[in-house]
C-alpha cells in the first residue's frame, strides 16, 4: 500500500473520530498517535468528558476488540491477565483474562492495588503476560487506554513513576466549550433517533502506517532539540534565567526522549508531512513530558503545575 493511500485512510479515521468526539481534537490526535506508535495513553478528566466514548469510538472505527476493566480495590491480577485452571481432562490450562484484546480500557486505573498495576505493567511493556512460568503473547495491535479522575483521590493508589513512564502520553480531558457542548447535545439527540455507523478502516492500515512513520524525516538539529528538551528536565541548573531548577525535583528518563521522537513523527504524519519540525515536537511535548516530571515542593507551594514547567522548557531550550 502506498504512503498516500495509508495517509488517506488515517485521515478518514481521524475525521470519523472527530465527528463522534466533538471539541476534543487533541484527544483524537493523541489516541491516533499512540495507536500508530504502539504506545499507551493515560486519560485524566472528570466524569462525563467523553473518555470512554473516545476509546469505544476508536475501537469501532477499526473493528478492533475492546475489553473494559473497572479497576477497584478488590481487583486481583488474575482478573486482568488470566489464570490457570484444571480442565475436564485434569490438566492445567490457561484461561485468558480481559487483557488479551486489541484495546484495553482500564477505567479508574488508580483504584487498583499495586500488585494489579504491576501485572498490567508487564503487559504494557513486554507485550506478553506470564502466568505459571509460561509466557503468552498479546495481539500485535495492543493498546492500553487508562483513565483516572483528578478530583476523587480518596481510596486510590497513585501510579508509581515506573508505570507512568510506560504511558507514551498523558492527556488531560477538559470540559468542552459552549459551542462544542451545543453540538454534542444535537449529536446525542440525533443518535437517539438512529444509529449512524462510523466510517471503518481496516486494522492492517495501522500496521502499514507504523512502518510509514519510521520513514518520516527527523533532521540532526531536531533530534538534538528533542534530546535537549529532555536533558533540561535533568539539568535545570544550566538554565539560570529560568525557574526550572526551583520547580523540578526529578527529570524525565531516556524513555521520554524516545517517546518524544515517536510522537513527533506520528503527529507530523497525521498532518500529511514527511518531516518533523519544531512545531511538531512542541505540539506533543506537554502530553509526553508532563507526567514524567516530578515537581519540587517549591513548585507545588507556588501552584506551579507540570504544564507550566513544560511551557518554560519550550521557552528556554533553543534549537541549534
Write up this protein.
The protein is α/β, with parallel strands linked by helices and 320 residues long. The chain has two domains: 3-189, Rossmann fold (3-Layer(aba) Sandwich), CATH 3.40.50; 216-316, Orthogonal Bundle (Helicase, Ruva Protein, domain 3), CATH 1.10.8. Helices cover 48% and strands 15% of the residues. It is built from 14 helices and eleven strands. It has helices at 3-20, 25-36, 51-62, 77-81, 114-126, 161-164, 178-193, 203-213, 220-234, 244-247, 254-270, 278-289, 297-301, 306-316; strands spanning 41-45, 66-70, 82-86, 92-96, 103-107, 128-131, 134-137, 143-148, 169-173, 248-250, 294-295. The strands form four sheets. Strands 2-5-8-1-9 form a five-stranded parallel β-sheet. Strands 3-4 form a two-stranded antiparallel ribbon. Helix 2 (25-36) packs across helix 11. It is globular. 38% of the residues are buried. The model has no long low-confidence stretch (mean pLDDT 90).
